[in-house]
């Protein structure tokens, strides 16, 4: 795994956060702080608000109460340009090739990383010229992960990042997160499954809705 320049430093502070789905209160009085180089794993049964929390942190959902503060941004920086959201939807354009999809997202996200190198890392270089509509679910997930590489950003918000991946793909996700944390990035990942992370001292766990 290559070692890019150190990422801009960010810290997330969440205070007394409450979120609803319709009339149902998913969680309330939620609080945590996450410093550069740290990861938070969000666990809990289906329906407890893991995806809602990720989308709220990304600014896509307004919380019912509480606050989310991100330290380290300049006054001129537009909110959201320092974070990647990896959601359930892949955002892959089926009529574009694998490499064209990655080039498109690199341009959208303002990145300058090498697409070929990123495809090597996620194991898709050999099918770079294949239309993305022909990819398996696991390959599509790997292509989505490659977007994190070509446009480095300090905050990763990952919703079930190992979905559709095999054991080798699970290990890939672990290596990507480990490298990101080593560069001073931070990561919040909603997941049902353990992640194959090397440095467990960097990881905290938040459980929603009781025991996971």
Would you write up a description of this structure?
- The chain has 2 domains: 7-73 and 153-212, 3-Layer(aba) Sandwich (Rossmann fold), CATH 3.40.50.300; 93-152, no CATH class.
- The chain has helices at residues 50-57, 98-108, 115-122, 137-150, 167-182; strands spanning 11-21, 24-34, 39-43, 65-71, 83-86, 155-159, 186-190, 203-207.
- The longest helix is centred in the C-terminal third of the chain and has 16 residues, at 167-182.
- The protein is built from 5 helices and 8 strands; from the N terminus they run βββαββαααβαββ.
- The strands form 2 sheets. It has a 5-stranded parallel beta sheet with strand order 5-6-7-3-8, sandwiched between helices.
- The protein is of the alpha/beta class.
- Helix 2 packs parallel to helix 4 and helix 3 crosses helix 4.
- A hairpin with a 2-residue loop joins strand 1 (11-21) and strand 2 (24-34).
Question: What is the assigned CATH homologous superfamily of the largest domain?
Answer: P-loop containing nucleotide triphosphate hydrolases
> Quick one: how many beta strands?
8
CATH architecture of the largest domain: 3-Layer(aba) Sandwich
In round numbers, the mean pLDDT is 93
What would the principal axes of the Cα set say about the shape?
A: globular
Ranges where pLDDT stays below 50 over 5 or more residues in a row are none
